[in-house]
């Protein structure tokens, strides 16, 4: 998963012939309890017309993991799931604050180095630390989300199996970008 897809999210539109309430019931039945430390695989919930699914590993909670999150809307014939696969809102806010802080530090450092004040001679020692500070979230993303595309495929297959979801064109006529199964066989 690219950093751009992670931060901006990949959009998906799915449809199911099942009503919203039945989709919520089936997903709640098929996913493990959020309190189970031994749960592995697709986890999440579907409540109040909102869907949130993610990949879970026993005894480890990856707060940086991408989330399949969306809204369910129903009409008389089908339920449409408009979702995105990417970083959660909390992670995007964290990245904004983190890189805002890195920017403030970098501007302060540049002002201190090039501002014409007398130097103690060791001002450049902080530059590698600012660089490392900037790289930490990116490295965490690369290490902990390297299987995100595989997990997306498993989550989409889960939706096909549990709620008979099929891929639909995204609003505006574009098809969803996925290589995952789109129909139950």
Task: Sum this structure up briefly.
The chain has 185 residues and is an alpha+beta fold. Helices cover 42% and strands 21% of the residues. It contains 5 helices and 6 strands, in the order H-E-H-E-E-E-E-H-H-H-E.
Major β-sheet, in short? 6 strands, antiparallel
H/E topology pattern: HEHEEEEHHHE
Strand content: 15-25%
* Alpha carbon gap, first and last residue: 27 Å
What coarse outline follows from CA principal-axis ratios?
elongated
Please give the count of helices: 5
Radius of gyration: 21 Å
Contiguous runs where pLDDT drops below 50 for at least 5 residues: 173-185
3D architecture notes:
The chain has 185 residues and is an alpha+beta fold. The chain contains five helices and six strands. It has a six-stranded antiparallel β-sheet. α3 (89-114) packs antiparallel against α4 (127-144).
Describe the secondary structure blueprint for this structure:
Elements: H1 3-8, E1 10-16, H2 20-30, E2 41-47, E3 50-56, E4 67-74, E5 79-86, H3 89-114, H4 127-144, H5 148-163, E6 166-167
């Amino acid at each position: 998963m690219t950093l751009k897809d992670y931060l901006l999210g990949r959009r998906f539109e799915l449809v199911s012939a099942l009503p919203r309430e039945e989709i919520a019931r089936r997903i709640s039945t098929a996913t493990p309890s959020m309190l189970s430390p031994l749960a592995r695989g697709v986890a999440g919930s579907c409540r109040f017309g909102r869907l949130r699914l993610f990949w879970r590993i026993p005894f480890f909670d990856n707060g940086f993991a991408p989330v399949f999150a969306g809204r369910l809307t129903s009409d008389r014939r089908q339920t449409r799931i408009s979702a995105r696969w990417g970083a959660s809102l909390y992670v995007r806010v964290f990245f904004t604050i983190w890189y805002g802080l890195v920017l403030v530090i970098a501007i302060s450092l540049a002002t201190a180095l090039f501002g014409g004040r007398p130097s103690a001679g060791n001002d450049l020692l902080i530059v590698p630390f600012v660089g490392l500070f900037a790289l930490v979230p990116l490295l965490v993303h690369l290490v902990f989300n390297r299987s995100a595309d595989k997990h997306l495929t498993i989550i989409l297959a889960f939706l096909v199996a549990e709620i008979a979801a099929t891929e639909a064109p995204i609003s505006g006529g574009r098809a969803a970008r996925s290589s995952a199964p789109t129909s139950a066989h």
